[in-house]
């Protein structure tokens, strides 16, 4: 990859969506700690979006709390007096507990303060999924509508899938939504696929280790895409350079420099061979045939947009009333959590490769589209909210779940862990988390520049 190949406009849009989504999640998560802390009369010294080592981009003190914006976009924090946290304020902990300190409060109050952020993230995810369901409903391309079947790449062909097949089931379970094919295969550790070929359904055995290859392959486009004709939807005035004739909406491309093709992916494979060249496209226009001469640019493009398979084949749309959206939103929140936990299990059992699945803020930011899309934005924000809740409730020191675990032990045994033990536990947890973050960031840079 070179810097010249980067679409900086797309990068800016992705970054904008990521920062907005991340800011919403962090502020509300920290508010989940801040509010109960104030309800229980704890002093809150700081409330920050992003971390602020050495300096802050902005800060303002209101009452006893300093509100600020840090410059390291890896999270945020509230500093509650009398609590061993990211600030590692040991000096304060050496003094006798004060009534307004966290450590002076009953265990049940401290537990509520600790899990408040997780609770807020869960509630936020539920509200977002309800809202998405109510506002946008469902729209998807059903497998049965794929008139020409699929275009199989080399990975799919390696297990016996052919161009023109329809993949109608995974592990014997019918596949309705074509877009969920690969996620169903990965999360259900697919062992068989049911494929419709020439009107007959046959089974294909998925070999051991295939899902690992599929996870890696998904980053470059996936193993199967809809097969559809190359019909012109619109022409780019900026990019199209015609030397004879013009493409118009509704033209169906059928040949390039005399080489016939039927489907859009075949055209894409052909046109790559003619970069920076004048070519002749043969098209069907109504009942007539036309020959268009035009330039293929350095990117292998001629400046037209094809009619998408969603339009060519038709989608299924389902709308929900608010009453219907509420249980559906709860269901989708649970399904998102279940899929995430399943993915983690596969990482620990070796069914997915950590180096292909783990990513830092770069990978997370790259999941946002290059054009602003509110439906996609809120969907990803809902997913990240439930993931953030799950990760924070894990019983790891330095995370909310670690603090909650020690508090629960105290409530059960009646014995409070010593401050020195909590300091060491916090340090160990932070080292673990920082090491994991550094490893994930390193993987992302390796993927960018390999």
Keywords, separated by commas or semicolons:
450 residues; Pdz3 Domain; 5-stranded antiparallel β-sheet; 4-stranded mixed β-sheet; alpha+beta; 19 strands
- What is the terminal-to-terminal distance? 8 Å
How much helix, percentage-wise, in residues? 40-55%
Work out the radius of gyration.
Answer: 27 Å
Average pLDDT taken over every residue = 88
Strand order of the largest sheet: 13-17-16-14-15
Weakly predicted, low-confidence segments? none
What fraction strand? Answer: 15-25%
Q: The biggest beta sheet, please?
A: 5 strands, antiparallel
Q: In total, how many beta strands?
A: 19
> Structural class, from secondary structure content?
alpha+beta
Q: How many helix segments? A: 14
Which descriptor suits the 3D outline?
Answer: elongated
Q: How many discrete structural domains?
A: 4
Explain how this protein is built.
Its cofactor is Zn(2+). One of its GO terms (biological process) is proteolysis. This is Zinc metalloprotease. This protein is α+β, with helices and mostly antiparallel strands. It has four domains: 1-104, no CATH class; 120-137 and 319-394, no CATH class; 143-226, Roll (Pdz3 Domain); 232-310, Pdz3 Domain (Roll), CATH 2.30.42.10. Helices cover 45% and strands 21% of the residues. The protein has helices at residues 8-39, 90-94, 107-136, 154-157, 181-187, 210-218, 264-271, 309-313, 322-348, 354-357, 361-366, 374-393, 400-413, 419-449, and strands at 44-51, 58-62, 65-69, 72-80, 138-140, 150-152, 166-170, 173-174, 192-197, 200-205, 224-226, 232-235, 242-244, 252-256, 259-260, 277-285, 288-296, 304-306, 316-318. The strands form six sheets. A five-stranded antiparallel beta sheet has the order 13-17-16-14-15, covered by helices on one side. The protein has a four-stranded mixed beta sheet with strand order 2-3-1-4, with helices on one face. Helix 1 packs across helix 12.
């Amino acid at each position: 990859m070179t810097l010249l190949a980067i679409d900086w406009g797309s990068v800016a849009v992705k970054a904008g969506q990521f920062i907005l989504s991340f800011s919403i999640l962090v502020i509300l998560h920290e508010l989940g700690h801040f509010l109960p802390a104030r309800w229980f009369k704890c002093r809150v010294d700081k409330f920050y979006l992003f971390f602020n080592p050495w300096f802050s981009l902005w800060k303002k003190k209101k009452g006893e709390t300093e509100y600020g914006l840090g410059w390291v976009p890896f999270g945020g924090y509230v500093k509650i007096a009398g609590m061993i946290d990211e600030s590692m304020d040991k000096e304060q902990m050496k003094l006798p507990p004060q009534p307004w300190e966290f450590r002076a409060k009953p265990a049940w109050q401290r537990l509520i303060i600790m899990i408040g952020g997780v609770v807020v993230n869960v509630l936020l995810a539920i509200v977002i999924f309800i809202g998405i369901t109510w506002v946008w409903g469902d729209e998807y391309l059903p497998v049965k509508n794929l008139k020409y079947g699929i275009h199989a790449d080399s990975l799919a062909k390696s297990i016996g899938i052919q161009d023109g097949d329809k993949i109608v089931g995974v592990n014997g379970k019918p596949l309705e939504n074509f877009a969920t094919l690969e996620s169903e295969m990965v999360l259900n550790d697919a062992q068989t696929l049911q494929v419709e070929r020439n009107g007959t359904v046959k089974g294909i055995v998925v070999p051991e280790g295939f899902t690992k290859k599929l996870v890696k392959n998904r980053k470059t486009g996936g193993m199967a895409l809809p097969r559809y004709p190359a019909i012109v939807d619109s022409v780019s005035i900026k990019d199209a350079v015609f030397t004879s004739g013009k493409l118009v909406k509704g033209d169906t491309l059928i040949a390039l420099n005399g080489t016939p093709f039927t489907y859009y992916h075949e055209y894409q494979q052909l046109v790559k061979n003619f970069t920076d060249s004048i070519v002749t496209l043969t098209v069907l226009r109504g009942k007539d045939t036309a020959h268009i001469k035009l330039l293929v640019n350095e990117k292998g493009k001629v400046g037209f947009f094809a009619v998408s398979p969603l339009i060519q084949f038709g989608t299924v749309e389902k709308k929900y009333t608010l009453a219907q959206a509420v249980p559906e939103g709860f269901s989708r929140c649970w399904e998102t959590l279940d899929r995430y936990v399943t993915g983690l299990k596969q990482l620990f059992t070796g069914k997915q490769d950590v180096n292909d699945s783990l990513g830092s803020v770069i990978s997370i930011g790259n999941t946002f589209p290059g054009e602003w899309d509110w439906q996609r934005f809120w969907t990803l924000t809902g997913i990240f909210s439930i993931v953030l809740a799950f990760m924070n409730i894990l019983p790891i020191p330095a995370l909310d779940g670690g603090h909650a675990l020690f508090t629960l032990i105290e409530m059960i045994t009646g014995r409070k862990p010593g401050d020195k033990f909590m300091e060491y536990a916090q340090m160990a947890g932070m080292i673990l988390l920082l090491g994991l973050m550094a490893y994930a960031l390193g993987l992302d840079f390796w993927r960018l520049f390999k």
